[in-house]
Amino acid sequence: MQIYKVGGAVRDRLLGRPVSDVDWLVVGATVEQMQAQGFRPVGADFPVFLHPHTGEEYALARTERKSGRGYGGFTFHASPDVTLEDDLIRRDLTINAMAEDEQGTLYDPYHGKRDLDQRLLRHVSPAFAEDPLRVLRVARFAARYAPLGFKVADETLALMRQIGESGELQALTAERSWKEIERALMESEPQVFIEVLRSCGALEHLMPELAQGADTLAALHQAAQRQQALPVRWACLLRGLEPAAIKALNQRFKAPRECQELAVLVGEFAERADQALAMAPANLLEMLQKFDVYRRPQRFEDFIAACEMAALGPGYPQGEYLRGAAEAARAVDVKPLVEQGLTGQALGEALKGERLKALEAYTAG
Ligand code: ATP
Ligand code: MG
């Protein structure tokens, strides 16, 4: 059997980028041979194994054929007669379809190195169209490598457009799509992900709510430059949309609860936050209550961050002001009210009254 390093590890080494995880490809072996050498199978019907010591992934060379619509509609064929070239041709991009043997010799039948040098994201073969997730993957790689000057090849963009028009993008599961969206948002130029999807028409099918207009890409870019967390980036992207559109996007991709919540809150309160310095104490209190700043301080911080990213300016004094207001409301002590014998709803009302007084003092000062 022959063992090759493949995919991202080869690509990133050639780019001089840090390599995080290494994928290995095994040619000329059977499942039984792998198990006899101590490799542990990852799943029952998938020819992928874990190395007994390093835990790294070793996949048997395979070919695959589309056998139905949507994910899962693939049949795999793994056997010792599948060649390195057979395996590499089913991969998405030429820069992801290179292999390296144990001596460090590069195998590059689809000219990934040339495309790396030309800074091109190019599909390997027409089989690209068999998995619509690849449209999102290409956009994600475009976001990641934008600082290095990478572009999507024209013919690949055209193929991505066809895939969008075929309706296959809607057949992707929420889980697969979100994984790509999440990784793309965490790249250094996440707005490029959206721009690429828009430029090939895929955005209209994946996120029609965003395709309409609502230019939030500058805020998203700013959020990445300022190393903001995922929920902040998602909320920046969705800011300015109608509540129904925010809800639709949250649900379509089954975004994590933190992302969903923050996007909804930013949608509802961001404009008020921008006007915070002119807010009446009662409105300020209503907002702090709605955010539950007493028990959810981090969520409020994320909210302020999202508002600040959209402001785009060098500073956002509203942020400091809102933080101060939350502090003032939090500083109200419930103990004296309890000692007065208040309970239940009456206690809640009294506490609110005290917090309002605190905010009146804060806004006056
Ligand atoms: P990353 O640095 O993001 O991990 P990667 O290239 O290693 O990048 P993986 O998702 O780990 O990406 O996949 C490993 C390799 O498997 C890819 O380089 C590519 O060759 C192939 N691959 C993964 N997913 C697909 C897909 N949906 N279609 C075609 N090829 C794929
Ligand atoms: Mg990888």
TrEMBL record:
It holds the Pfam family PolyA_pol_RNAbd. Residues 4-122 form the Poly A polymerase head domain. CTP binds at residues 8, 11, 91, 137, 140. Keywords: ATP-binding, Magnesium, Metal-binding, Nucleotide-binding, Nucleotidyltransferase, RNA repair, RNA-binding, Transferase, tRNA processing. Residues 149-211 form the tRNA nucleotidyltransferase/poly(A) polymerase RNA and SrmB- binding domain. ATP binds at residues 8, 11, 91, 137, 140. Signal peptide: none annotated. Its cofactor is Mg(2+). Mg(2+) binds at residues 21, 23. CDD domains: NT_ClassII-CCAase. It comes from the Bacteria. It is an enzyme of class 2 (transferase). One of its GO terms (molecular function) is transferase activity. Its EC number is 2.7.7.72. Belongs to the tRNA nucleotidyltransferase/poly(A) polymerase family. Bacterial CCA-adding enzyme type 2 subfamily. This is CCA-adding enzyme. It comes from Pseudomonas fakonensis. The gene is cca.
